[in-house]
Each structure stands twice: as C-alpha cells, then as structure tokens.
Amino acid sequence: MKYNHKAIESKWQKNWEENKAFKVEADRSKPKYYVLDMFPYPSGSGLHVGHVEGYTATDIIARFKRQKGFNVLHPMGWDSFGLPAEQYAVRTGTHPQETTKKNIDTFRKQLKSLGFSYDWDRELATSDPKYYKWTQWIFTKLYEKGLAYEAEMLVNYCPALGTVLANEEVEDGKAKEGGHPVERKPLKQWVLKITEYAEKLLDDLSLLDWPEGLKKLQVNWIGKSLGAKVLFPIENRNETIEVFTTRADTLFGATFLVLSPEHPFLETLTHEQSKAEVQEYQKQASKKSDLARTDLAKDKSGVFIGTYAINPLNGRKIPIWVSDYVLMGYGTGAIMAVPGHDERDFEFARKFNLPILPIIEPDFETYSQLIPIGMEKEEVLEEVLKGKRCWTGEGRYIYSKNEDLDLSNLSMEEAKSAVAKYLEKKNAGKETTCYKLRDWLFSRQRYWGEPFPILHFEDGTKRVLDLDELPLLPPDIQDFRPAGDGRSPLAKVTDWVDIQDKKEGKAAKRETNTMPQWAGSCWYYLRFLDPQNEKRAWDADKENYWMPVDLYVGGVEHAVLHLLYARFWHKVLYDLGLVSTKEPFQQLRNQGLIVARSYQNKDNLYVDPEEVMEKNGQYIERKSGEVLKSQIEKMSKSKLNGITPDDIIEEFGADSLRLYEMFMGPLDREKVWNTDAVSGCRRFLQRFYDMATSDKVTEDVNEEALRLGHRLVHQVTNDIEALQFNTAIAKMMEFINEFTKLESYPKSIIKMATQCLMPFAPHLAEEIWETLGFKENLNAHPFPDVNPVYLTDALATYIVQVNGKVRGKFDLPKNRSEEEILKIAKENELISKHLGGKEIKKVIFVPNKLLNMVVD
Ligand code: ANZ
C-alpha cells in the first residue's frame, strides 16, 4: 500500500500543535540543550531549500536530544526589519508592517509544513515593538557605557538606496544589495565602539567549538598587527607625521612617505604649488573603493605634495607623497615607504623614479623560493643591491647603522625591537598594536528599522530615553522615500521630530536615523529564553539555565557580520553582568550551499529544467531536440533552476524532503540538487513503512535481528552526534536491506529502527509507532539503549578438547579460523597444561563449534 504522506503529515502536525508537543520550560531537574537556527528574514519569495537544509539539521538534533532526555529549547522567529520591505513600500505604498506580516504568515506555514519541532509559543519578530523595545534598551546600555557615539565620518553613501551602508555591505564600490554604486561622503553617524572589544573578540575564539575556517575569517577581519608607530619630523616645520609599520627594522631604508588622500594633515602640509594637483587627486580617489585602491595589480598613482620629511634614523631628507594605496582607515593613514623591501612601495618608486635603498642582503638559503625560476643567486643579489629588484625575505642588514644603533648582526625580530627601543628613547615612536577592525557604523537612513531612543537638545546635549519611554515607535507615514539629502524618511515628519521633552522640560529633536538590521539579530537568542517578559529583556534565572546556545547552525555568509556583532553585544552584556557566559554560541556549524544545474540554449536563454532530458551525458531540450549548454550554479529565478520546497512537499512529502536534503552530502559541503534523488528517499520511506506494516511482523525476536537493531542504534547515535546525517541515513538504508532478508520481522527491532528514523522523518515515524500499537507519542519516548553484546559479529561458543576431552570453552565472534582458535587455545594456561609441551599430531576443527588437539 502506498503510504499517504499528505494524510500522515497533516495528521501529525495537527497532533503536535494541539498537544504543544515541543513546548518547553526551564527545568533544573533536567540537563538543557539549546539548539538555534539563524532566523530568517521573511522575504517575499518564501522559504528556500537552503533554509530547509539548516533547519532540518537542527531539528534532527533537537528531536534526538529530546529522546536522549534533554530539556530542549528549539525556537524560531523572524529577522523582520530590512530593506526589501521598505523598498517595496516605496514602490507600492504598502506599509512595511503589512508586507512583513504577510510574509511571516507564509514562512510560518511553510515551516510548520516541514514538521520542525519548534516551541511556537516563543515566536518573536524583531520588528515587533514588544521586541524592539528591548533592542532600544540595550542601545541605551551601550550608550551609557560610552560604547555608542556620534561622529562625522567618511561613510559609504549609496544615492540609489538613499542610505549609508556599513563597510561589510559594500563590495567593489557597490552595494551588495542591488549592486548600486557607492560614494564616500562625510556624514554625522552613530558608531559603536566594537574596537574596544577587539582583543576579547580575538582571545575568546579559543573558547569556542566553531569551524577553524570561520574562526580564521574573524581573526582576519579583526586583523591584529604588532608593529610600531614612527614619528617623522617635517623639514623646516615644527610638525611630525606619524606612520604605522610592521617592519620597523627597515626604517633605514625608508626613502619617502606616503599619506592617504583623506589624511587630515594633507591640506596644511601640501606646498602651495602642489595644492591644485593634490586636490584633484583627492577627488578622484574618493570615487574608488578600498579594495580597488589596495589591489596589488592596480597601476599605482600618486602626487608629490612638495614637502619633505626627515628619516629619524639617518637624517635623510625624504619626499612626502599622497597615494590612494594608503588607506585612512588603517594604522595612522600614513606609511613610510621602503621600496627595497615592500612590493607596493617598490612599484610606486619605480613608477615615479623615487630612490630605492636596499638595506637587506638576501638570505638565499632560507628564502630559496624567492629566487625566480631561471635566475642565478648572483643575478638576484646584484639586482637587489642595485635597487632593481625588491627583496621581501629576510637577510643580513646593510647600511643599517648610525652612532647609537647597529642592526648588522641582528635577526629580524631583534632588529624590530632594537629600532623600537631606539625610537622610544628619542621620543620618536614606540611599539604598538593595530587592528583592521573599525568601529561599527550603526545608523541607517531608513524607515523600517528601530528608531534610536535619543533626544537632542538645542545646546548640543542629548539624553537616552528611560525604560518607561520605550518602545519608541516611528511615526506612521505614507511616504517611505528617503529625504534624498542623506537623511532618513523620519526626518521629514517634523511633528514627530520636534517635541517638548517633558522630563527635562525643554525643546528637543528626536534622532531620525534608525538602527541597522544587524541590531535585532544581535540578541534574539536571549529573548527566546523569555519572550513574553514585559518587565525585563530576559529573566536572569532563565538566562542562567539556558545559556549558552549549545548548537547554532547557519550559512557561512554570516561569518564576520552577524557573528561578530552578536559576540560583541554579548560581551558588553557580560561586562554589565546581564548575561552569565562570555560567549553566546558554544558550538557552531555552517551549512553548505545548495546549488543546481541550469540549462541554456544557443541564444543563451535559460531553459526550464522540466523541458530537459539527459541522454549519453548530454542535455537535450525535449521539444526541439537541441543540445543545451549546462552548468551548476546558485539557484535563481532568472536561471530557472530554483526549487520551491512547497512543490517538493506536495509531490513527495516533507519527510522525503527532509531526508533528501540530509542525504545529499555532509552538512557543511556544497551540494547539487537532484529531484530524481528525492524520489529515491521517498522509496526508502515506503520500504520502511511496508516493513513495519508487513504480515511478517512478529513478537518473537532472534539473534540476527537483535544484532541488526543494536548496530543501527549504535551507528545512528554516533552519526547524529557528529552531525553526519548523510551517513546515518545510509545506515538506515543498509539496515532495511538486511532486515527485510529475514524470514520474520521482530517488532521490538522495528521499534528501535523507528526511533532512529524519527529525527529525520518524524511524521512517518510517529505513524508507524502508532501502527505498532504504542500509545505515547514517539517524540516523548526515550531513545533505545545499545547492548554492546550485539555490536560485534554474533558470538559462537568454541569447545576446545585435548585428545577428545573438553578442556575449555570460549565465546568468540563467529567464523574465526582454525589458526586463530588454535593460537588462543595454546596460549591458555588451563588448556596448555593438558598438552604437556608435547607435539600436536593432529587437529580436528569444526567451524564455529569445536577444536580437538591430538597429542601422544
Ligand atoms: C614599512 C614596511 C616595509 C612595511 C616592508 C611592510 C613591509 P599589516 O601586516 O596588514 O598590518 N601600511 C600601514 N598602514 C597602512 C595603510 N593605512 N594603508 C596601506 N598600507 C599601510 O600591514 C602593515 C604594513 O602595511 C605596514 O608596514 C605599512 O608598510 C603598510 F618591507 O611599513 B610597512
């Protein structure tokens, strides 16, 4: 009988909902397990297969941990502030509130149709005033702690979106969202001092069970560099320029300085005659992204500013240039150029004919890889010494001494610290640490975000709103377009902006910026602990019980944004004594991208995969017979290779979809969608169902069945715990193959297998469970225990005789060879004494039963 997935799945979804099967409360008598998904932005296009992938993985863990006796917190909510709803509002006039509500309803329905075991009573949405009241409150805490400030900043302004974007939202000079060009522009903005936490954010990575690659991304993003600041006096002026270098050992070789085009001293330092040229250069540079500016392959550009500095070690007069390969956002925005030993400086010097002074004689032994193929050491040496080649390796320092300092015989590390000490003594510099991490630009010029709980007074002072004044709602408006001058749509609503502050009794202006979408997702995992609390953001006891999140699963695209911001807020909350753990997410795993094959005809038009058939490794359009080009790429509507979970659920069922997405391959790998393979998973479920409902089912049990059952439980347990869901499923498939070869199917073993199936295909598992006659829902039933006896091959009792008399018995795995049993027998003292050291004349061996040794 074909199993009816529609009837079964809706039956159990209803049952779980009515019984609130996954509702959970803090309960100190049980161990807790908090398993969290990266909650979705409820977009208009609904759930995609990538959501299903991560959410199935966590659901398997949630269900498994419940079976294992844990008190499991598995919540779901909506990251529902965001640009698309606002842009839709601009286009259609529909209030983002409405669009968001509609999208959330769709998402909720879709998630429920997958049978995820969420405690739906904890559902939350970041755009709900009951939620963002507390986001605003946390902002006031950051402000009070001095971690939020306003600054005139060079920001990425996107005219098309009418808003400022964070560095992380910009790629290649374009907005990641929509690809619109981005300009650099000074504007007053709210900034969060994440840099104050740089060191802790780095150090505490060691506390976490996260993929190493992901930790590395955070380490690189924070970008800690040990180096030195060096002060260069300006010729004929009482001023200095400070540079940051990681190679203070090369200071003798610094032959010019380079300032970033945004450097604040540039204007005053530039010689009158160079002013026009420098200004023009600054203008050009403001149009380029940081990435384009620092690209090694890019042709170097720059302008001499007409002024000289003095090298503090050798008194050499060196020219000052401006160039956009130096970024204002890093170090001091100025560098000492050492063209002999730094590639970029070398190229720059070559292009503008600046002096190149080699100060390191190459160590060819350690750096043989730096000798270009086809060149002799001697040639390289000659070129380096003549300043015709840049040497980036180590070696012996040359031309590197003055009256008090001699680097000649020092290693690189020794030379660095010798120079730093020398500079420190002369008040010309010191060792220092620099981070690539910048403070976090925290304001946006949007309507659909959390308003800042801040009032500005005429005298320039401000105050944050008190808790009793929160949530601060935005004005209800019809026109969602930005003000067009860089200010947000809120700025246009003057009767909302200009108020009489009752608490201070004076006129005030509301802040019109809103917070970025990252704000709400910085702490939602805490609100899930206590989502209905109206008095507090969360209850301390609950926080203490549930935190940290034990397992967090989501896409790798959040490696540095969400995950760094959330860690930062969490650490601030920790320092305020508001949370009990240093880190929010103890174990984290990434899900891989699901990609799909797309097809294009000779006109490069995409063809619907439904119209394509495969023949001899070629892809052919059914109707025209045309051979198509094909490639595997990210799913997208325009490429017609997207898959809608709803369609798959309709045709094959949610259990098949869940199973398939887990069977595709390891969780963290990229995987290629193949709808045919979904039906393979469906067939497996059918076989499982047929087995459980077969008339071969028996109350008896036999050794072989026990062995299969216990081995399955053992293997599935190990695989689930290692998040190796694909291999767990493979083992269930093997189990069915073996088990259905048995003459009869012991019910107790089917029961065990059903318990293994449950986390993966919960609807069918519940149905089978009920069919087997068990009353209590399966999800509340403990996972079966493994009896290790059944894990090895079945045992046989070997009887060992000497001259036909029984001298010993051994329970050993079946099918051992004559040699093995003979060896064991001879090594056993109780038996060997009957052999009396005599020669064995003859051995009689009956496999799995008997060994008889004959001696004189
Ligand atoms: C002299 C020197 C000689 C350098 C040498 C390198 C090699 P990391 O490791 O990434 O921290 N630098 C400093 N500030 C910069 C800025 N704002 N924009 C562009 N480049 C900048 O890199 C530090 C090195 O990058 C510094 O050390 C400086 O060049 C350059 F053989 O100083 B170095």
TrEMBL record:
It is found in: Cytoplasm. ATP binds at K637. Gene3D superfamilies: HUPs, Isoleucyl-tRNA Synthetase, Domain 1. A motif ('KMSKS' region) lies at residues 634-638. Keywords: Aminoacyl-tRNA synthetase, ATP-binding, Cytoplasm, Ligase, Nucleotide-binding, Protein biosynthesis. Pfam families: Anticodon_1, tRNA-synt_1, tRNA-synt_1_2, tRNA-synt_1g. Its EC number is 6.1.1.4. Residues 434-618, 626-661 form the Aminoacyl-tRNA synthetase class Ia domain. Residues 220-366 form the Leucyl-tRNA synthetase editing domain. Residues 705-820 form the Methionyl/Valyl/Leucyl/Isoleucyl-tRNA synthetase anticodon-binding domain. InterPro entries: aa-tRNA-synth_Ia, Leu-tRNA-ligase, Leu_tRNA-synth_edit, M/V/L/I-tRNA-synth_anticd-bd, Methionyl/Leucyl_tRNA_Synth, Rossmann-like_a/b/a_fold, tRNAsynth_Ia_anticodon-bd, Val/Leu/Ile-tRNA-synth_edit. GO terms for molecular function: aminoacyl-tRNA deacylase activity; ATP binding; leucine-tRNA ligase activity. GO terms for cellular component: cytosol. It comes from the Bacteria. The keyword Manganese does not apply. It is an enzyme of class 6 (ligase). Residues 38-171 form the Methionyl/Leucyl tRNA synthetase domain. CDD domains: Anticodon_Ia_Leu_BEm, LeuRS_core. GO terms for biological process: leucyl-tRNA aminoacylation. The keyword Ligase applies. It catalyses: tRNA(Leu) + L-leucine + ATP = L-leucyl-tRNA(Leu) + AMP + diphosphate. Belongs to the class-I aminoacyl-tRNA synthetase family. This is Leucine--tRNA ligase. It comes from Candidatus Criblamydia sequanensis CRIB-18.
